[in-house]
Design brief:
The protein contains six helices and two strands; from the N terminus they run ααββαααα. By secondary structure, the chain is an all-alpha fold. It has a two-stranded antiparallel sheet with strand order 1-2. α1 runs antiparallel to α3, α2 packs antiparallel against α6 and α3 runs parallel beside α6. About 5% of the residues have low confidence.
């Protein structure tokens, strides 16, 4: 009687897993994890745009020539010595772009991976149900029991543990890093706004332009450390939310599931 109940339960759960394998986005864990990844992608994209705007303004400003005729003949490029800052911004923006790309890949991969996971869970449940009906699970051939265990473990990891780890990891990372991310974004927005003011200098006299560029040079040089720290902080925040915490939680869930099964 107990064997019949176990067989029926295994078959019902296998059918549910096959249904979710065919429609993985019906799983609320998958849809929530995709939504979180989409939010990270949007935030990373906004940061990348801000950094590229700063980079573009700095690059253009380095080439602007301010001419004069009172003291010297010719022209000067007052912001050319900001090239190290410009190069640093460009490299960090490339790192942010890589984060955005990685987030996009993870977002579109969650549903297919979950689908494979549910298919493996269905196979594990069908194997167990068949063994229960034939000889009982504990009397089944070791090869079949091993197959069921491997499929069940991988299926649990792909279909349940992975999206759950992303949901909890991204949510927890957002809570833990909200203040740091807000401060870094405020710094970037302030510097990007200051960079935007440089485009309004074309119609001014060379004396006004020289004073404005000299002030801008001093501002960007003084803000170089804050700019770098803010950009690297956001890189760390994104990686913590979408890689570090989810992977730690995935390993914890995997270890907990193995101990539960073994116990």
């Amino acid at each position: 009687m107990r064997s019949a109940r176990n067989t029926l339960l295994s078959l019902v759960l296998a059918a549910l897993c096959l249904l979710l394998a065919a429609m993985p986005r019906e799983n609320p864990l998958t849809t929530r994890a995709e939504a979180y990844q989409g939010e990270i992608a949007v935030a990373a994209g906004a940061t990348y745009v801000s950094l590229r705007a700063i980079n573009a303004f700095l690059s253009a400003a380095q080439e602007v020539e301010v001419g004069g005729s009172l003291v010297v003949e010719g022209s000067v490029q007052p912001l050319k010595w900001l090239e190290p800052v410009d190069d640093t911004v460009e490299r960090v923006s490339a790192a942010i772009f890589a984060v955005a790309v990685l987030t996009g890949v993870l977002k579109i991969s969650l549903a297919p991976v979950a689908s494979v996971g549910f298919a493996l869970l269905a196979l594990a449940l069908l194997t167990r149900g068949g063994c229960e009906a034939a000889t009982g699970w504990h009397r089944a051939p070791p090869a079949l029991r091993r197959l069921g265990g491997i499929c069940g473990g991988l299926g649990f990891a792909f279909a349940i543990a992975l999206p759950l780890a992303f949901v909890l990891g991204v949510w927890g990372g957002e809570v833990l890093t909200a203040e740091a991310a807000a401060g870094a974004n405020t710094t970037l927005d302030m510097i990007a706004a200051e960079a935007g003011k440089l485009v309004a200098l074309e119609d001014q006299s060379w004396r006004e332009s020289w004073e404005a560029y000299r002030g801008a040079a001093r501002f960007f040089w003084e803000q170089a450390d804050d700019l770098l720290n803010a950009a690297l902080t956001l890189v760390g925040v994104f990686l913590l939310r979408m890689v570090v915490l989810p992977m730690v939680l995935l390993l914890a869930l995997w270890a907990g599931a193995r101990r539960l099964v073994a116990g």
